[in-house]
Amino acid sequence: MTKYEYMQLAIELARKGMGRTAPNPMVGCVIVRDGKIMTDGFHEQYGGYHAERNALLRCEEDLTGADLYVTLEPCCHQGQTPPCTDIILERGIGRVYIGAMDPNPKVAGKGAQILREHGVEVETGILEKECLELNEVFMQYIATGIPYVAMKYAMTMDGKIATYTGDSKWVTGEVARRHVHELRKRYSAIMVGIGTVLVDDPMLNCRIEEGVDPVRIICDSRLRIPLESQIVQTAKGIPTIVAYASGDPKKEEDLRKAGVELIQINEHGRVDFAKLLAELGQRKIDSVLIEGGGTFHGTVLKSGMVNRIFCYIAPKLIGGKEARSPVEGDGFSYMREALEMTDSEIIKLGGDICITGCVRKEEASCLPES
After folding, report:
1. Residue from 292, 293, 263, 257 nearest 279 by CA
2. Which of 229, 233, 264, 306 has the most CB atoms in a 10 Å sphere around its CB?
3. 16: three-class secondary structure by DSSP
4. How does pLDDT run across 236-280, given as a tens digit for each residue?
5. Which active-site residues does the annotation give?
């Protein structure tokens, strides 16, 4: 096997930690000697050992001179766990192949430098693009402290998310809907506007095997969320945040008793999206999946803080000028103002497709009163 094939194995291992490592990165590690994989490991959960240490602790054989493949630069500082560089040197690893460098200021090239200073051969940039994409959430969050924002919506070929009567179940098929639940496992939080709660009464949980429920965040400027809604009724079992501008003190008390955490951010009677993201970042929420309606999506997109779009398209036509669209609001005045996606990818999901890509950022703005 080549060094690229070993690194690909490390990437696949890293993905096993999805949904459990945030705000830390997903990392995989493979250790090879004389063409044989001796051991491997991945970062399994936040607060647990890193991939390199997990792999090395699993193997009692002599690893002197072995090759170590890791998707992210080994850490060199004492955090919740000891430095990975220490155990790499202790076990006599001869060569270390690194996928991507760690942007964390506590590491940022220091891990590779320490290894080189102790006689370990280090090669970087092995499948770097793939390793960076694996941790696009971590790369932004560690550098800015602001959660990575993804937006998801499903629509028909004529750009509708529901019929003119409001019926929306289901736009896409089972394969695409499962993919959505994989996103809910991938991102730390899921956010909707109060309109979605009032119309659909959703659970916003992750309903797949080995799924991890995201933190649920409701933007509700006037605190209209019903106490009998599924969101409130299950708040003691699934972390739930309601961001609001103003509300009745008795309603606030009732929501807190039900297990809901309240964040008050009042910007001219509305929730300020940029300030809300900053607050979530302070709470170690490193990523947010937006799953709202057209009005909510329109304003969030205009904020310029969305990083990635997942657009699911079903081969259906429903028509109707009153049928809802995935992105509404006033929109942009000129085509030159339109947001553009880069690194677009098309994913086939049964009879449906998903187009995903990264989005440029613009200045932040407030959410609409809802």
Report:
1. 263
2. 306
3. helix
4. 999 999 999 998 999 999 999 999 999 999 988 899 999 999 999
5. 52
